[in-house]
DNA sequence: ATGGTTGTCAAACAA
């Protein structure tokens, strides 16, 4: 029996102060698997009861005090949870969950949830250690041996998260003006493409909104009115293994969430798969 | 060209 699985990703920028709009996002998107980034909450302070009340009994956490942090919630049970550390810094920037037979799935379904370093303001690794860290993080992703090739071909895998890079010209409000702005510089975009080629990973959001059209998931807080000239970027992504891409049925970028009370600067993105 | 805002945790720092 095929079933629909909706996977949602959202950089929530503090999970504890946004439980109300988290509830609204869940009501709108009805995800089966919800991946958050920038939870800014250590694991022993996580609002587990509130998440369970939203309909997610299965919770996988990788948090730290004050900043970063990722979390993945599920309506269906996990067969496995895995966390990876990058750049030997102890940062909480990745968690993966796998759903299997316990969740009623014949083919295991793995979801990687990433929070890639933002990279600071100056796009020069010699002058800016945060940009150097971002590039080193991407180099580790490129070198990441996920699965043997044969297993990779059969597995259903999703990679979501705030990747902090807008690769296409239409992923930013002005390609020309952002070429020297961290998130859209050629050196980052080139590394992202190399990482994408290792899967290979399929940019499934662009199966629903063609690459010729602008598509954003983030609008800066530093603008008095985010709607005024739509100066956004697509920093949040949903990638799939080639085997899973044809199973994608729908995609939503919940733009309205940017206007909710006390919003995150990112909005949720959801993709529904028939598996 | 510059500065603009938000969150953590209580002074800077990160985004």
From TrEMBL:
Cofactors demanded by this protein: Mg(2+); Mn(2+)
Domain of life: Bacteria
A single GO molecular function term of this UniProt record: endonuclease activity
Site (Important for catalytic activity): 236
Comment on bound cofactor: Probably binds two magnesium or manganese ions per subunit.
Stretches assigned to the Endonuclease/exonuclease/phosphatase domain: 8-266
One GO term of the biological process aspect: DNA repair
Presence of the UniProt keyword Signal in the record: no
InterPro entries named in the record: AP_endonuc_1, AP_endonuclease_F1_BS, Endo/exonu/phosph_ase_sf, Endo/exonuclease/phosphatase, ExoIII-like
Active site: 115, 162 (proton donor/acceptor), 266 (proton acceptor)
Site entry: Interaction with DNA substrate: 266
Site positions for Transition state stabilizer: 164
Residues that, per the record, bind Mg(2+): 11, 38, 162, 164, 265-266
Keywords per UniProt: Hydrolase, Magnesium, Manganese, Metal-binding
Chain coiled-coil ranges: none
Family matches, as NCBIfam families: xth (TIGR00633)
Family listed: Belongs to the DNA repair enzymes AP/ExoA family.
Name of this protein: Exodeoxyribonuclease-3
């Amino acid at each position: 029996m095929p079933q629909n699985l909706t996977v949602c990703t959202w950089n929530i920028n503090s999970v504890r102060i946004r439980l109300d709009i988290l509830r609204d996002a869940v009501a709108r998107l009805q995800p089966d698997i919800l991946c958050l980034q920038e939870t800014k909450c250590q694991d022993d302070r996580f609002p587990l009861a509130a998440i369970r009340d939203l309909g997610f009994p299965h919770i996988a956490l990788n948090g730290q005090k004050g900043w970063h942090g990722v979390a993945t919630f599920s309506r269906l049970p996990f067969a496995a949870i895995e966390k990876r550390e990058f750049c030997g810094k102890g940062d909480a920037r990745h968690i993966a969950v796998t759903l299997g037979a316990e969740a009623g799935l014949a083919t295991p379904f793995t979801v990687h949830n990433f929070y890639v370093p933002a990279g600071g303001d100056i796009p020069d690794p010699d002058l800016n250690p945060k940009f150097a860290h971002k590039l080193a993080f991407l180099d580790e992703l490129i070198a990441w041996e996920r699965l043997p090739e044969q297993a990779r071909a059969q597995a259903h895998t999703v990679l979501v998260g705030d990747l902090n890079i807008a690769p296409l010209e239409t992923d930013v409000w002005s390609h020309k003006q952002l070429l020297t702005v961290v998130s859209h510089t050629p050196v980052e975009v080139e590394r992202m493409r190399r990482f994408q080629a290792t899967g290979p990973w399929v940019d499934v959001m662009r199966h629903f909104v063609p690459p010729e059209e602008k598509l954003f998931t983030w609008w800066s807080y530093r603008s008095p009115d985010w709607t005024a000239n739509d100066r956004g970027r697509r920093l949040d992504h949903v990638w799939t293994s080639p085997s899973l891409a044809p199973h994608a049925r729908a995609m939503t970028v919940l733009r309205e969430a940017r206007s909710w009370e006390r919003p995150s600067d990112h909005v949720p993105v959801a993709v529904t798969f028939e598996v």
